[in-house]
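**Discrete fold encoding**
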Amino acid sequence: MRSIWKWLKTIVFAVVLAAGIRTFFFASYIVEGESMQPTLYDGNLLMVNKVVYDWADVKPFDIVVFHANEREDYVKRVIGLPGDHIAYENDALYINGQVAEEEFLAPFRVYDGMPLTESFTLEEVTGQQEVPEGHVFVMGDNRRDSLDSRRIGFVPIDAIVGKVDVRYWPISQLALEF
């Protein structure tokens, strides 16, 4: 009977510890849709670090999960930070007038005669010349089929759930950093 009691206490402690870690430090997220292909695919399971932005600032090209509205969370890539001027011209990203390399898009470029990302300026899609304080500009990697800041506007930094650190399902696509 003592042995069973020890095991029961250990299991209860492990479950409470795991629930606490999951609740306060990490969240699991299921990718829905194709907006982040080829980086993430529909049905991928992700581990989202909920505390990283308590200690560090959001960085360009971080993949984040954020509350898009009261019922939905989206996963997108951060393109612009507060104060940035964003433009696309001839399928090239310009941040503050400088070309920014997007190597993560290489697998998606099919060179079918159409640009992966249509040309735009921040002012054309948001009505503002720069990303406002307390917000970020996000885009999906599947630029032709992504509901992102070009349509939904800037994302408040406070709406970010966390940074995607791990893709853990399917196992064959395990990745620890993006």
Remarks:
- Helices lie at 2-24, 52-55, 122-126, 149-152.
- The chain has a mean pLDDT of 85.
